[in-house]
Design brief:
Blueprint (H helix, E strand, L loop, with lengths): L4 H15 L20 H7 L5 E5 L3 E8 L2 E8 L2 H11 L5 E5 L2 E5 L1 H11 L2 E4 L18
Antiparallel strand pairs: 1-2, 2-3, 3-5, 4-5, 4-6
Helix pairs in contact: 1-3
Length: about 140
């Protein structure tokens, strides 16, 4: 079966809905390290999770992860364009996204914020209508 971008966005969106919830994150602003790079396995090791692979295709590799900060989806992409297309589709489902160069971590706000202290990256938030009660529903904010 050939994996298409809409299928991947839908899979990512389902994972977002399964993992995200109404989390209340503190407004603590920690120093953000330089954005991490590397394979899915390397990024997972950086945040001390054993990736449970869900998609292993040329265009995207996606895994479910869990560490002391919570559960999240970690995805790596072959191209910047593929990453942006995936994000554009997935963000319609709400959630919180930590975005690096050719990788994304998706989960509850507190989990993604904690990951940022190790992986760096930029915080983005999904659609307002899918994040009722979210405090930063403008689409994105930088940490």
């Amino acid at each position: 079966m050939k994996v298409t971008r809409p299928m991947l966005a839908a899979a990512g969106a389902v994972a977002v809905l399964a993992l995200s919830g109404c989390g209340s994150g503190g407004d603590k602003e920690a120093a953000v390290p330089e954005t991490a790079t590397g394979s899915l396995e390397h990024l997972a090791a950086e945040v001390k999770c054993k990736p449970n692979m869900q998609t292993d295709a040329d265009e995207i590799r996606q895994a479910l992860c869990k560490n002391t900060d919570g559960r999240f989806v970690l995805a790596t992409f072959a191209t910047d364009r593929g990453q942006r297309e995936w994000l554009n589709g997935a963000k319609d489902y709400g959630g919180y996204y930590l975005v690096g160069r050719k990788w994304v971590a998706v989960g509850q706000e507190k989990t993604v914020t904690a990951l940022q202290s190790t992986l760096g990256g930029t915080m983005e938030e999904g659609s307002e209508h899918m994040n009722p009660g979210g405090s930063h529903n403008s689409g994105s904010h930088h940490g």
